[in-house]
Amino acid sequence: MAKFIFVTGGVTSSLGKGIIAASLAKLLQARGLRATIQKFDPYINVDPGTLNPYEHGECYVTEDGAETDLDLGHYERFLNIHTTQANNVTTGRIYQTVINKEREGAYLGKTVQVIPHITDEIKRRMLLLGKDDKYDVVLTEIGGTVGDIESLPFIEAVRQLQWELPEEDCLVVHLTLIPYLKAAKELKTKPTQHSVKLMSENGVHPDILVCRAEEPLTNDIKRKLALFCNVKQEAVIEAADASTIYEVPLMMMREKLDLICLKRLNITNFNEPDLEKWKGFLDKLKYPKSKVTIGLIGKYIELQDAYKSILESFIHAGAINECKVQVVNVHSEFITDENVSEKLDGLDGLLVAPGFGHRGIEGKITAVKYARENGLPFFGICLGMQMAVIEFGRNVLGLENAHSTEMDEHTPHPVINMMEEQKKITLKGGTMRLGAYPCVLKEGSLAHKIYGTTEISERHRHRFEFNNDYLQQYQQEGMIASGTNPDTGLVEIMEIPSHPFFIGAQYHPELKSSVESPAPLFVHFVAATKRYNEKRTSIRNPLLHSEMI
Fold first, then answer.
1. What does the pLDDT look like over 15-72, one tens digit per residue?
2. Preceding omega of 116 cis (within 30 degrees of 0)
3. Which of 7, 227, 311, 344 has its CA 20 to 30 A from that of 321?
4. Is 170 annotated in the active site?
5. Is 382 a catalytic residue?
6. Burial of 444 (0-12, 13-18, 19+ CB in 10 A)
7. Could you report the per-residue pLDDT of 169-195, keeping only the tens digit for each?
8. What is the CA radius of gyration of the chain?
9. Catalytic option among 59, 323, 382, 439
10. Which of 59, 391, 510, 524 is catalytic?
C-alpha cells in the first residue's frame, strides 16, 4: 500500500492548500516517487458541475469525464499526469453512496450513522488510489477550514486513519496563516495555535506546519510554534508569498518540506530532485523577451478563478514563446457596435471564453466580428467557437437572426443546435458531453499545422454543437471544419484559412495544458499575437523596427 499525506487548512480559507499539495507532490515526483493528489470537498453538491462559476470558479473536467474542483487543474499542471473521477470526492457523493447502499439493504437493517458509515465510506475513498501498486505516495487535500461543521466527518476520518495505519504510513500537513500586524510590527502565532488546538480537540495531530506569512519567520517564532503546537521545530515550514505559483515547489524544496516528509514516512529509496525542466520554464517565465496583450472576452471576469485554466495556459504558452502575456479582461455584456473598437483597441489577440446562457452573447458576437474584419488573431473556446459560427452566419452568409438554440429556441437558422443525445436529458448534473474524445484534423489546415498530426484527443464539456446542415454553406464561403469527431461527424474545429489566425475549438484545450506540455493551440495563438504585435509596432514606428532588425 502507498504512503498517505493529508493536507488540511486552518485560520482562513484561500491560503493555497492546493498549491502546497501540488508543490509537495511535484518534489516527491522529482525525486523519482510515483505521486498523485486527491481533493475531498465538504459541500453537498455531488460535483461542481452545477455550480455557478461565481460561486466556485471554473469546473475542471478530467480525461474520464468527471466534473471536478479547479484544484485538480493545479494537480495536473504541476505533475503532468491525468487525474480521474477518483481524485475528487464531495460530501454529496459520499452521502449519495451511503444512502444508495441503505436503500439496497446493504447494511442489513442497522441504523445508518455518520460514524461509522459515513466515515467508513470517506476512508474507503481516501485509501482507494493507494490500494494497487500504481502510486508510492497519495496526497489528500481536505477542502475548507478546520472548525467548519461541514469538514468534521473528513477530519474524523483522518483521525481514524492515523490510528488504523502504521505510524510511518500516514502524516498530516497543516497549512495555516501567521498574520503580520503592521501597527505592532510583529507576526502573531495565536491564530495558528488555536487552529492546531481545534484539530487536536478533534483527535488529529499535525506532523508538519506550513505557515503562510507576509514577513519571514524568525527562529524564535518557529520555536514558539513548535512548542505550543507540539511539532518539531524543523517541521515548521515558512511559505512566503511568491510572484508566481510555479515558484512554490522550489521554495518548499529550500525549506526541506519533501525531505521532512520522506523522513517521517520512512522512505529511504529516493533520488536527488530533477527539476531542470521546471527551472528552465521559470527562467523563461521571469525573463521574457517580448510582451503581448490579449483580450479575454467573457462574462465571469469579476472572478479570476472562473477562467483559471485559460489564464494558466497563457502562462505556459507565453514561457514557451519567451513572451509575457498580459491578459486584459473585457466584459462581453458591455461590448456594443458603437464601442467595440475602443474596447479592443491596443490588443494583439482576442480569446472568446466558454460559458453558458444568453447574457453577454451579443457582445461576444460583436467582438468576433471585429477580430475577423480587422485581421486580429482570434481564438474561440467552446461557446467562443459557437459565437464565431453565429457571427459568420449572420454577417458573411446572410443568415438573418442565425443563432444557437441555447439562446433562441425559435431562431430561423439554428447554426448551433443541441446534440441529439442531449434532447431527452432532464437531469443537469454530469450529463453533458464530458471528457476526452478523438478528433481527426484536415491535412493542410491551421489545426493540422498546430498539432503536427491528423489525430488528437481533447476534453469536452458542452450540450450544443455545430449544425452540420449548414456545413456546406460555411465551407463554400471560407469557414472550414478542420477538425471532426471520427465516430459522430461532430465538428470540433472551425477556422478561416484566409485570416492570419482565426480558429475556434468546441473542446477545451486549456484543460490539458501543463508546465511540461503546453496546449498547442495556446502556444500557436500566442505566437500569432507576437507576429501581429511586431507588425503593428513596425507600422507605428518603422525606425524602431529597422533598429530591431
1. 889 999 999 999 999 999 999 999 999 989 888 877 777 777 888 999 999 888 889 9
2. yes
3. 344
4. no
5. yes
6. exposed
7. 999 999 999 999 888 888 999 999 999
8. 25
9. 382
10. 510
